[in-house]
Amino acid sequence: MHVEKVKFKKNLPFSIRIQSINRYPIHWHENITEILLPIKGSIEVIANFEYILVKEGDFWFVNNKAIHSINSSSGAIVAVFHIDLDYFEKQFEYIKYMFFRNNGFANTPVEIEEDNFDDKTRKEYKIRFKNLLINFLDKIVNNNHLSEKILDNFEFQLIYSMIYEFHWLQFLKKKDSFISPFQLDRYHRVVKFIEKNYTRKITLEDVASREFITKNYFSHFWKNISYFSFQERISYERVLKSQFFLLTTDMSISLISEKCGFSDVKYYYSHFKRWFGCMPLEYKEKCFTYQKIATDYNNLELNSIGQVLIEYVDKYLTPYNVNSQNSEFSLFVENYPKIKYLYKMDKKMIPHASKNIVLDILNHSNFCIKNNHVIFNWYIIDQIVKLTNSLSFNLSIRLRADYMEEAWFIYTIEKFLDSCIFRYGIQTVSKWVFYLDYKGNELFNMTNAIRKIIHKRIKNAKISYYFEI
User: Fold this and answer.
1) 402 and 309, same structural domain?
2) What is the pLDDT of residues 428-453, one digit of tens each?
């Protein structure tokens, strides 16, 4: 059992393998997140203490340093995406300490399926993310390699979706609670501190003093952000660390217990069984028995799966695909290169002109209401934000107040603002200009209410009224 190395090409933080798998050995990756996408057949993934059935048509995240193996009874064909976390660390400081998942969390060692939740919004996230993976894979297969040109279309979308839609706190938080970027950073600092100091005693006072807050304040913060108690989170980290000692050394259980920070070996036994459902030596024996059986997998050439991928796309690609015949999507795809062309042409002009993108967030191509849930088209919004950030365009958000009833309108704007602040950060959102449609006194009260909502969330927000003639 060993760490599996992945070679990344310069300026390409992704690596893609196509494998036919019956039995893949136990291994892990350092500073890499892995995404498994079965394109023919289903697989069973054993990651740490979880047993996950990943069906054809779905995907699964294998997190940084997670000890895992992969099995299939039918020689499943799997697209394996590896993401270089070192590459993204400057932009996302705590990405190595983030855990991603696309299903409900099993807090006991039972087999789960990757889609065992009923949250409709998260299902929409899964549909869109799966389509991104399919489009990414399709581009690579058709070009027979991964290039910077291909990556440019998908890097931003994949990483942002992972961080803001598949962070595991989304599955731990209380329903309808909002986790701010500030809270998220604090959580990651604490997780990093635990990982760096798990060998010694860690107290609430230690962490609270590092965060310059009181013990009671930190307890309240932790209770609101996770259903694991703070001590349970520490024990969880220590148990996971003990896996590496169990599988890579001949240390005694008492020594492993001591090295992982347990004050008594009986506590180690208790916490290990709580997560893995068995004692440490029993787990070790299972893993070594598994490793003794011959591995059975093959690496496939990209150009060998063309027909398999065509069948998969026909079966599983949904209308959220960028290649959809939906007219609004087609219009966006058509305008995307035009925006880049304008940027390149304007660079030749002296002086430069101001460049603006106006996003009508309540246009039916950018959001919809389904079953009393507001769903935004983050595919388009992410692309627009990426363009404005990378090409120095100004972003204006147009809000037309006559689209819907006042209560729904206000709720939609609140959700949009909160999501954007969480997704892109307050510094990015504060640069935007918000245009409010004004058509007379009958709509002034509504637009005035929206102005107050915006200012409540974004200090010194830029707001303008406009007339459309």
Assistant:
1) no
2) 899 999 988 766 555 667 777 888 88
Higher-confidence residue: 460 or 346?
Answer: 460
Distance, in Å, from the CA atom of 383 to the CA atom of 154, rounded to the nearest integer, reads 10
CATH number, domain containing residue 399: 3.20.20.80
The pLDDT of 145-149, averaged and rounded, is: 77
Cα 145 from Cα 166, distance rounded (Å) = 27
Same domain, 381 and 415: yes
Residue 238 lies in a domain: no
pTM (2 d.p.): 0.70
DSSP label of 102: S
The answer to whether the beta carbons of residues 272 and 48 sit under 8 Å apart is no
Residues 47, 275 contacting (CB under 8 angstroms): no
- Provide the CATH number for the domain around residue 11: 2.60.120.10
Between the CA of residue 274 and those of 69, 235, 279, 399, what are the distances in Å?
21, 10, 9, 51
| Cβ atoms of residues 160 and 134 within 8 Å | no
CA pair distance 263, 5, nearest whole angstrom: 34
Report residue 257 as tokens: 């217990």
Question: The tokens of 327 are what?
Answer: 């007219």
98: left (phi > 0), else alpha (psi -120 to 50), else beta? beta
Kindly report, residue by residue over 328-375, the tens digit of the pLDDT.
Answer: 444 454 455 556 556 555 555 655 667 788 888 877 667 777 667 777
Residue 393 and residue 343: Cα distance in Å, rounded? 8
Structural domain range at position 74: 2-173+294-316
Residue 255 scores a pLDDT above 90: yes
